[in-house]
């Protein structure tokens, strides 16, 4: 746009110069040529507007075709593509969207071709009339051959300047529409805007935080998805004490992960407020607030770079290799990493490096735990590892508990046995907190928590529950308790 902006004035001046010379011949001819310029410009603008009107449709189909293309070469989809014979179906879907893209581009080119034909026709009429007038003047003796030659050259120069200027102006108009789209996007209101005068997070920024120094309070918090009338939470009140180990439990869809995202301010509350040491978290700078937390989310998304890069990513390019190795050992990945050809420099996934490693679900979970340990946030969060079986999940939780002994830690799960070691358990159901207390307190209440935990099974010919301590059935009870929530209701 800037290049065209600086080039255009010279073109306009040259065009005006040609029109001035032609006006000496006849003012009406000059007026006619100016009108022809306006008509031609209007048709070019129509073409640019038509092309712009197709941008969203074109972008949508290109996005879908690119998604299918990415799936077809992504190594992680290989098993499903082979097992379910998806290659033909994916290929047909890909070609469907490519055909739509070709159709849209063809319609744009057809419109451009129509404008070009109209331009040729107008140019023929425009210059035919002018040349006919010049010939008439020569035949009538009102113009010499020398003047005729000069005006013919002027008309030719006018044609070149006219075409360059008009196309330049039309291109600038097309670019201005793209810039307007960009400006509209950049001016879109930020739903999670920073406070005008942010206050520092207590205990200073990342690198100067200490364990057991943060207390969080959910005060009358309500939240719903934008555009939805259904509240996931309604008037939720809950306090996370300093140094507490809190378990968030409940069935799938109870709002456990949403609770974590609100706490981390990945979402902003719809109503109410969340306080950190008595200060509304909206008053903090988000980047500084994020530095409090080390989180292992439910969705395990390793990066296609080295193991060391995946773990030390919070330090950017300044990765502490000794600390990386320590975190690998603490997370229980030493044997796996040491057995790799390039050790911690081995690439994860095969997207960038063909020799990259594909970790199992449990190994990915440990990799993310190592990343969380490396960041060393004051508050640790472990969202429920959906890819793990009950026994593997319990092992992960117990290991994580040992690694975060002196930190505020939040565990998310729908399996009760994974949370018995926590200081407190919060049971979520139907968008609200229904029970809160220690494991023993909730058992004594004999409400929802106890009903979920007790699971009748004929092992010794009588009923058993997770509260019984008989040696012969203890381990079987714990295994059953792991699956109690998924079976309840």
Write the topology of this structure.
Blueprint: H1 2-25, H2 27-53, H3 55-73, H4 78-83, H5 87-139, H6 145-186, E1 216-224, E2 231-240, E3 245-249, H7 256-263, E4 271-276, E5 279-280, H8 286-290, E6 293-296, H9 307-311, H10 321-330, H11 334-338, H12 361-375, E7 379-382, H13 390-403, E8 408-413, E9 424-429, E10 432-437, H14 439-445, H15 448-453, H16 474-482, H17 484-487
Parallel strand pairs: 3-8, 3-9, 6-7, 7-8
Antiparallel strand pairs: 1-2, 1-4, 4-5, 9-10
Name the structural class: alpha/beta
Q: What are the low-pLDDT stretches, counting only 5+ consecutive residues below 50?
A: 204-211, 453-476, 478-489
Rounded Rg: 35 Å
Helix percentage range: 40-55%
The proportion of residues in beta strands is 5-15%
Helical run tally: 17
Which geometry do the CA atoms define?
elongated
Please give the number of β-strands: 10
SSE run: HHHHHHEEEHEEHEHHHHEHEEEHHHH
Physical arrangement of strands within the biggest beta sheet: 6-7-8-3-9-10
Mean pLDDT: 81
The separation of the N and C termini measures 63 Å
Give the biggest beta sheet. Answer: 6 strands, mixed
Describe the protein in words.
With about 500 residues, the chain is an alpha/beta fold. It is about 55% helix and about 10% strand. The protein has 17 helices and ten strands. The chain has helices spanning about 1-25, 25-55, 55-75, 80-85, 85-140, 145-185, 255-265, 285-290, 305-310, 320-330, 335-340, 360-375, 390-405, 440-445, 450-455, 475-480, 485; strands at about 215-225, 230-240, 245-250, 270-275, 280, 295, 380, 410-415, 425-430, 430-435. Strand 9 (about 425-430) and strand 10 form a beta hairpin. The two termini are about 65 Å apart.
């Amino acid at each position: 746009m800037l290049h065209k902006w600086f080039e255009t004035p010279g073109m306009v001046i040259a065009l005006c110069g040609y029109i001035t010379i032609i006006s000496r011949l006849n003012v009406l001819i000059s007026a006619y040529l100016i009108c022809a310029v306006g008509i031609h410009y209007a048709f070019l603008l129509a073409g640019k507007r038509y092309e712009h009107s197709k941008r969203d449709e074109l972008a949508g189909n290109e996005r879908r075709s690119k998604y299918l293309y990415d799936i077809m070469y992504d190594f992680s989809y290989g098993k499903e593509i082979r097992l379910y014979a998806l290659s033909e179906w994916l290929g047909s879907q890909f070609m469907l969207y490519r055909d739509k893209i070709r159709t849209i581009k063809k319609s744009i080119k057809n419109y451009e071709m129509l404008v070009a034909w109209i331009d040729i026709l107008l140019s023929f009429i425009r210059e035919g009339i002018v040349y006919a007038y010049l010939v008439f003047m020569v035949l009538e003796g009102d113009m010499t051959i020398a003047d005729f030659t000069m005006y013919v050259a002027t008309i030719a120069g006018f044609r070149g300047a006219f075409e360059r200027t008009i196309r330049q102006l039309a291109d600038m108009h097309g670019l201005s529409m793209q810039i307007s789209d960009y400006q509209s996007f950049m001016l879109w209101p930020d739903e999670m805007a920073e406070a005008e005068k942010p206050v520092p997070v207590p205990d200073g920024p990342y690198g100067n935080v200490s364990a057991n120094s943060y207390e969080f309070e959910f005060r009358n918090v309500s939240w719903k998805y934008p555009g939805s009338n259904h509240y996931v939470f309604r008037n939720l009140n809950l306090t996370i004490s300093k140094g507490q180990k809190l378990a968030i439990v409940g069935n799938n869809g109870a709002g456990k992960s949403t609770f974590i995202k609100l706490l981390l301010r990945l979402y902003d509350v719809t109503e109410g407020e969340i306080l950190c040491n008595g200060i509304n978290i909206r008053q903090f700078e988000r980047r500084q607030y994020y530095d409090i937390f080390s989180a292992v989310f439910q969705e395990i998304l390793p990066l296609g770079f080295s193991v060391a890069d995946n773990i030390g990513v919070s330090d950017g390019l300044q990765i502490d290799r000794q600390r990386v190795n320590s975190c690998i050992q603490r997370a229980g990945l030493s044997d796996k990493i040491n057995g790799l050809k390039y050790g911690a420099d081995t690439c994860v996934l095969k997207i960038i490096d063909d020799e990259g490693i594909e970790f199992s679900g449990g190994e990915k979970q440990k990799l993310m735990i190592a990343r969380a340990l490396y960041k060393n946030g004051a508050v640790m969060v472990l969202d429920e590892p959906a890819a793990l079986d009950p026994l593997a999940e319990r092992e992960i939780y117990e290991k994580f508990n040992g690694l975060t002994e002196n930190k505020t830690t939040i565990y998310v799960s729908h399996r009760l046995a994974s949370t018995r070691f926590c200081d407190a358990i919060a049971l979520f159901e139907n968008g609200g907190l229904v029970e809160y207390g220690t494991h023993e307190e909730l058992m004594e209440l004999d409400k929802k928590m106890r009903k979920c935990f007790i699971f009748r099974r004929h092992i010794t010919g009588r009923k058993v529950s997770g509260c019984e301590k008989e040696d012969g059935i203890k381990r079987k009870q714990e295994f059953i308790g792991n699956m109690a929530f998924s079976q309840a209701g």
